[in-house]
Amino acid sequence: MALLIIVSLIIYVPYFFQVPQAVTNLETWLIDSSVVIGAFAVWVGFITSTRREVVRIQRKRRGWFYGVLILVLSWTMVIVGLGLGKTHVIFEFLQYAFVLPGDSTIYAILVFYLTSAGARAFRVNSFESGLLTVGALFVLLKQAPLGELLIPWAVPVSTYLENYVAMAATRVFSVSLAVGAVVLAIRLMMGQELALVGLVERVVKREE
Amino acid sequence: MADIYTWAVLILSTLTTFGLYMILSGVDNPWFAFAEHAFVGCAIGLSVVVSTDYIFRTIVPRIMTDPGKNWPTFISIALGLMMLLRIHKDTVHIARIPITIATGAGIAVGTRATLFSGIINQIRATILPVFSATDIWALIYNLTVILCVLLVFTYYFYTMEMKGPLKSANSVGKYILYLAFGVLFSQTYMGRLGLLLGHLENYLTPYFPDFFVTVTIVLIMIVSTYLLHKRYPDLLKKVTPE
Amino acid sequence: MSVIKAIATIDRRIYYSAVFIITAIMLLFPIGLPLKVSPEVRAAYNMIDSLEPGDIVIINFCITASGYNELKGACNSMIAHVFEKPGVKVIFTATADQAPIMLEEIIANNGELMAGYSDYPYFDIRGKKYGVDYINMGYYPGLFKWVAALSADLRGSLGNNDWYGVDVTQFLNSNGIMEARDVDLVLSFDSDDGAGDFMRYFYLEYGTPVMQSMIGVMVAGAKVEYNAGNYAAIVPSIRGAAEYQFLADYPGFALTQMDAFSIIQFFLIFLMILGNIGYYGYTRNLKEVK
Fold first, then answer.
1. Residue B142 belongs to what domain range?
2. How many CA atoms lie within 13 A of C151 on its CB side?
3. What is the pTM of this model?
């Protein structure tokens, strides 16, 4: 915990006060080191996932051959990427064939769920749900060029809702998030939230 | 060779894309399992490669050019290597040192600037002219922002009893939030829809080979999933993970 | 009554299929609808248009594949616009691990291979040559931590080698890029908060203007920062990208997708109305009977 406080103070103090160059250099070094540590931490995740899939394959759990697929593809990418270079044709092939389409699709699927939510969840059965629906309707009309063409009066109303009303509400979220982050930092330095960041083991007491 | 490469990328990327879309069918199917596991495997490999490449591209040359001047970088690398000891339970306590440094640095770096951008600048932007507004519209907009911010803040008072004017402010704040969530839903929908459109355009145009391959693969997936569910449920159970 | 019941109990897979079919039809057969440009996008256009010879621009990609298709239109048109400004020097960076390959695609879309070269990074974009007018430094892990390090020690954090291992010291020295305050503009394409990091460590410390083009989910937060003066300009999601392409006279993906975009948004409005008809005509009565 002492280390946590020292590191935090070395990074906070030069930001707010004039300090000797040595302290500024130490601050820069600490930030650089945290980036390097993060780069190595990815290997921890990689080794852990390899271990998990090997166990799954050894125990022949249902669908174990998909574990073989994960292992083959991940290790191929690592060996080719580090050994032959990240511009190698096999590395780029795997990125174009699996990573890019996969990542795009995962979030694009949300459109379908949002569309069915529009039919199911936007029911005007109270004043609050009416406001929700009205807000959504006006902005949908403004965003679509066809909406601007057919219902031009919706545009200034929607602009007002987006740029002033919703912006003000989102500002409250931003300020709350910022205050929460500062409080978390203070609690970490006071040793209250060490379990949250994995510095100590969380012990759950079960009542007998 | 280029043609084989292009066809292979097209077929596999279409398989991955529409394999993941098969989750919308609401039933277990091996296409989704294949696409999901292939994506996860490659994404893990990619993260490892680009992170390690950063070390070899930026950090190692820094040491090689001037080891005397850049001696602290050796300590950074040592800390990074200590991080790897987290994988074994007997050495996990050693890994707490780099975790502490990374956590402390991350939290400090993240919050020190947030004090200005997230709190001070936001409050300053809310203090807007009311009596000296230039025209009626500026007055309306400024009043809207000030009142909305204040009223929505009252909705987040959890430790006080809501009574009197505070209760009314709390209710109005709640209504403003509902309006705002409707707006946020639409903005989210716009974003995801844009993603879907850009994504599907890659698989629908041009007619040959993209559209042709897409239609063929989608038909195969739908027919095979249907047959597995209706005719071969035991085989379906074997080819889908738990 | 059975029609209302059918409306109230439509299988959600019919909604999914309808969205797929409408999307496919509109992408294959676009109509060509007019577009109005918002003040934010116009400010973004003017910001890039006012770049002068000798200005240093950092173009940061904080996009994963999940945001790329949404921001592709903005990337192509805004980057082309920057490269059309004479004398402007560009440093490409990436703070998302998937971003470099998308960055390469954008470079290839907007440029052509330089004479005597057959592969990345040697592309000529609108007359600007690699290594002379722009460089691609690739991916740096650490997100805000790396941006903070970049702000404190620009040359140390960038390193001397680009994404392909080519020494770029000559480019950095000859253009006077020594520290963070030498940067004149930061343009970030975000599906994570890359611009926010640059805003906190470049704008708040050195006054460097920061522009952001972001995915739809981040639009509300971006408008808060833009309204507070933290961002110089924003280009929100695909709609902003289409408006930018319209302003810059750059026929691209976002502009051609606006038709499909409009129709599906209207389809959602139709479904909202349908859902309410089904609810008031059937589901609500069912609950009352129970």
1. 2-239
2. 24
3. 0.85
